[in-house]
């Protein structure tokens, strides 16, 4: 039984090797108890695995259905559609018939690898608008969701880095809106295309209709801007290359890949109600269920 209980450390755990990614569950994982089991290593799961394992006393297991080969994901020119959609990194979902699309079903790519969809997306770094966040605050009655209150946390994520070609980026984004100490590296394009100068020229001539926006991550997204991408030194940045990479060598974090959670199961009873803190899993879509 793979169960999450309040801090049950075994002698083996203390001797555990660093940076372990398990491709299949070794018996020691099955015998272990974790304080926290996280299902899915995408944008949410990888961040949680990093932050929760900062406390060396908290034993964390991260389970991902896809594989571990996120370092091998290429940035490919027309982006996602050419190589990553319908690849071994994609769940290959298709939507239900969409009324607004003349009832067509369309592919709905979702990442199937450490990093999840951050490993197969188009790498555009795009915050919400001031209005979006302030509306969350209004609707929830919690000022903590407002743009002003969230910005310090956005700065913990964001790290503006030099573009691949090292050009002078003055006038291509607003440095005051970015941090230099976040965990996710971003950059403006390392090469420009002929269309870029034409777009900027049009923006200068028709500034009423197509205003130049120095930084579309200011909370005001309207206008023409230089794109900010989750790219660093010509390589894709994902929640695995950032949040997981930082946490890999912690002895209190285990990562199990190629593993689909099939059920949440009780580990006992609390006050007469089932205590749902265990997981059942399989290593292929039709594979045997464990336990
Ligand atoms: C990445 O590109 C290189 C060179 O084009 C190729 O050899 C390699 O197989 C590619 N990797 C993936 C995961 O597509
Ligand atoms: C998605 O489709 C590709 C191409 O057929 C395949 O290689 C891959 O295994 C599929 N993904 C899953 C999660 O089954
Ligand atoms: C889409 O499907 C719905 C339900 O079957 C049907 O009522 C509707 O007429 C269809 N719309 C189009 C544009 O075919
Ligand atoms: C980058 O360009 C700006 C504006 O042209 C200039 O003021 C600045 O000195 C340049 N920075 C470097 C490092 O050359
Ligand atoms: C873990 O990785 C960090 C950053 O790469 C490094 O500073 C630290 O020494 C490593 N710790 C161990 C125990 O290897």
From TrEMBL:
Keyword entries, A-Z: FAD, Flavoprotein, Signal
Cofactor(s) the record lists: FAD
GO MF annotations, alphabetized: flavin adenine dinucleotide binding; oxidoreductase activity, acting on CH-OH group of donors
Protein name listed in UniProt: Glucose-methanol-choline oxidoreductase N-terminal domain-containing protein
SUPFAM superfamilies in UniProt: FAD/NAD(P)-binding domain
Species: Ganoderma sinense ZZ0214-1
Keyword Signal: yes
Domain Glucose-methanol-choline oxidoreductase N-terminal per the UniProt entry, residue ranges: 34-284
Annotated coiled-coil segments of the chain: none
Cited InterPro entries: FAD/NAD-bd_sf, GMC_OxRdtase, GMC_OxRdtase_N
Signal peptide: 1-19
Keyword Lyase found: no
Protein family membership: Belongs to the GMC oxidoreductase family.
Pfam families for this protein: GMC_oxred_N
Record Gene3D superfamilies: FAD/NAD(P)-binding domain, Glucose Oxidase, domain 3
């Amino acid at each position: 039984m793979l169960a999450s209980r309040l801090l049950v450390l075994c002698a083996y755990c203390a001797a555990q090797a660093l940076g372990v990614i398990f491709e299949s569950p070794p018996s020691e994982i099955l015998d272990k108890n974790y304080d926290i089991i996280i299902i899915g290593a995408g944008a949410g799961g990888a961040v949680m695995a990093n932050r929760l394992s900062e406390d060396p006393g908290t034993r964390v297991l991260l389970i991902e259905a896809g594989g571990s080969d996120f370092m091998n994901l290429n940035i490919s020119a027309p982006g996602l559609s050419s190589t990553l959609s319908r690849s071994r990194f994609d769940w290959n979902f298709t939507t239900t018939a969409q009324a607004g699309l003349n009832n067509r079903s369309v592919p709905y790519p979702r990442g199937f690898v450490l990093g999840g969809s951050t490993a197969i997306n188009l790498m555009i770094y795009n915050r919400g608008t001031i209005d979006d966040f302030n509306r969350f605050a209004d609707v929830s009655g919690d000022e903590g969701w407002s743009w002003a209150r969230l910005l310090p946390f956005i700065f913990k994520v964001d790290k503006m880095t030099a573009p691949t070609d090292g050009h002078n980026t003055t006038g291509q984004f607003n440095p005051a809106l970015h941090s230099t100490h976040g965990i996710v590296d971003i950059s403006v394009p390392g090469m420009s295309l002929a269309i870029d100068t034409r777009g900027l020229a049009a923006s200068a001539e028709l500034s009423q209709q197509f205003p130049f926006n120095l930084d579309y991550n200011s909370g005001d997204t309207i206008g023409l801007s230089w794109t900010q991408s989750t790219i660093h030194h010509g390589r894709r940045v994902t929640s695995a290359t950032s949040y997981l990479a930082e946490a890999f060598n912690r002895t209190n974090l285990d990562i199990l890949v190629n593993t689909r959670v099939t059920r949440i199961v009780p580990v006992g009873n609390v006050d007469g109600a089932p205590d749902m803190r265990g997981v059942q899993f399989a290593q292929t879509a039709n594979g045997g269920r464990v336990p």
